[in-house]
Amino acid sequence: MSKTRLIVTTTNAEPPLKGDLFAGTKFWVAQRCPSRQDYIKKITYNGGTIVPLEKQADILIVDYLRKDLPVNGVSYRLIDDSLKDAEFKDVDDYICGPRHHVRDVGSMKPARAGRTPFTTEDDLQLYKWVKDAENQGARIKGNELYKQLEQKNPRHSFQSWRDRYLKVLSIKPPSSALVDANPPLSPPTSDPQAAPQNFPRPRNKRPRSTGSVNEKPSLSQ
């Protein structure tokens, strides 16, 4: 039976027990964010941490209606929607500030706005990253594992990496990963199909020579 997640939505008073929806995630909340103190409480009451500097944060919460937004600024709607659905939403869906993109090497095309799609290479990298960590005993549902991956490949936010694995790849691994992880077994040696296809030709039994020891074999057939 799945464990019911504790979600704290009221900000009137500090709750006796805090939720863990935002646990392990550091937030910076802009000074001009509407109802800033309420959002700070919503974050901390649900396990998140508030930091004073942008560079210390995993997520920058901002007012999406403003023009002077920081790079990768995230709308405060992320907090509201996550609490409403009791699910930490994908950060990429709420980015409203200028995006930090990684372009393909040699590409002259400008980065496109909007959500960055996952490629086959992304899926393979993510799947291998998580499986390697899991084999070493790491927690795969936390944030730290995906934050480290984001440092290596900032094409997606750590939250997007995490959502992609938990909601997609953990259920349906990439096909190439399955092939690599489960190579076909070698057929048993008793199986006639396993025998070589090019059989050696049988040797003609050489008749016993009755001549001298210096006699050479005949080359005629």
UniProtKB/TrEMBL annotation:
It is found in: Nucleus; Chromosome, Telomere. GO terms for biological process: protection from non-homologous end joining at telomere; telomere maintenance via telomere lengthening. Coiled coil: none annotated. SUPFAM superfamilies: BRCT domain, Homeodomain-like. Residues 118-173 form the TERF2-interacting telomeric protein 1 Myb domain. One of its GO terms (cellular component) is shelterin complex. GO terms for molecular function: telomeric DNA binding. Keywords: Chromosome, Nucleus, Telomere. It comes from the Eukaryota. Homodimer. Involved in the regulation of telomere length, clustering and has a specific role in telomere position effect (TPE). This is DNA-binding protein RAP1. It comes from Aplosporella prunicola CBS 121167. The lineage of its organism: Eukaryota, Fungi, Dikarya, Ascomycota, Pezizomycotina.
